[in-house]
């Protein structure tokens, strides 16, 4: 599958602009397993970004790729 590099750059810029802000995430883990929680974007790297989960102590931080956002597995709302 061909990736639109302009769209990927837009996702990176959007996430970079949200760094440090509290956001709501909805993650599709597959087989009708959807998780929703509030988190803060901690770090932004060239290929991935990390978020710190506010409420769940079992999952203190999560890492996602920009492609996860682009393909819809991770929805920032």
Explain what this protein looks like in three dimensions:
Helices cover 25% and strands 42% of the residues. The chain has 77 residues and is an alpha+beta fold. The protein has one domain: Roll (SH3 type barrels), CATH 2.30.30. It has a five-stranded antiparallel sheet. The protein is globular, with a radius of gyration of 12 Å. The mean pLDDT is 88.
Spell out the blueprint of helices and strands.
Layout: H1 5-17, E1 22-28, E2 34-44, E3 48-53, E4 61-65, H2 66-71, E5 74-76
Antiparallel strand pairs: 1-2, 1-5, 2-3, 3-4
Spatial ordering of strands, largest sheet: 4-3-2-1-5
Measured as a percent range, the helix fraction is: 10-25%
Radius of gyration: 12 Å
How many domains in all?
1
Q: Roughly how many Å apart are the termini?
A: 26 Å
Beta-strand share of residues: 35-45%
H/E order of the elements?
A: HEEEEHE
CATH architecture name? Roll
What CATH calls the topology is SH3 type barrels
Largest sheet: 5 strands, antiparallel
- The count of strands amounts to 5
CATH class categorisation: Mainly Beta
Rounded average pLDDT: 88
Number of DSSP helical runs: 2
Shape: globular
Low-confidence stretches: none
Secondary-structure-derived class:
alpha+beta
């Amino acid at each position: 599958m061909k990736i639109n590099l302009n769209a990927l750059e837009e996702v990176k810029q959007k996430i970079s602009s949200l760094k440090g802000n509290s956001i709501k995430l909805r993650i599709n883990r597959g087989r009708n397993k959807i998780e929703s929680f509030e988190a803060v974007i901690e770090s932004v790297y060239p290929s991935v970004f990390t978020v710190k989960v506010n409420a769940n102590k079992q999952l203190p931080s999560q890492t996602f790729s920009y492609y996860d956002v682009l393909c819809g597995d991770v929805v920032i709302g």
